[in-house]
Design brief:
The chain is mainly alpha-helical. It has one domain. About 65% of the residues lie in helices and about 5% in strands. The protein has a two-stranded antiparallel sheet with strand order 1-2. α1 packs antiparallel against α3 and α3 packs across α4. The mean pLDDT is about 85.
Length: about 180
Amino acid sequence: MNTAKLKRVSQKSLLTTTRVYLGIIFLIYGAAKIHPGQFHHGDFVFDSTKDTPFELVWYFFGYSLVYTLFIALGEIVAAILLIIPRTATLGAVCLLPISVNIAVINFCYDVKGMGPFTLFLSVLCLWLLFMDRKKLQIIFWDRHSVESFTKKPRRSTVANTLGGPTTVSGSESTTRGGKNR
């Protein structure tokens, strides 16, 4: 096996491993929010002199079951998209703001030392997006490339030589405006 092929295979394996790893992590965290429940639900009393910022965050997120399920659904959907090869780029795009938000919350509220780990997950997500930068460039910045993928090729060479969309019928050709040429 030559070195170029080995490099390609290794890179693809590393990308796949990273996608699956992130996908499984966020599937687990999303499922943990649903059952048995990652956050404190129900009535609570927060005492700022005794309780920690971590407890405040957990009470806040657990206060609304709907919001907890919304967070869980976002993590689970992004994780599934990331695991499926065809939708992996979309999954990474969806997962990046989720993972960065979690990292910021973990650092700001000192969530049991999880800040560095969630920052690592965000960096992995950024790396996946960097590796898909050509796809993202086509989608977000290079309109000409997107149009070439979405437009059907023209059948008639007459249309191309006359300078625009043209229909040919019988012995006359007309443009969109209906004027004869």
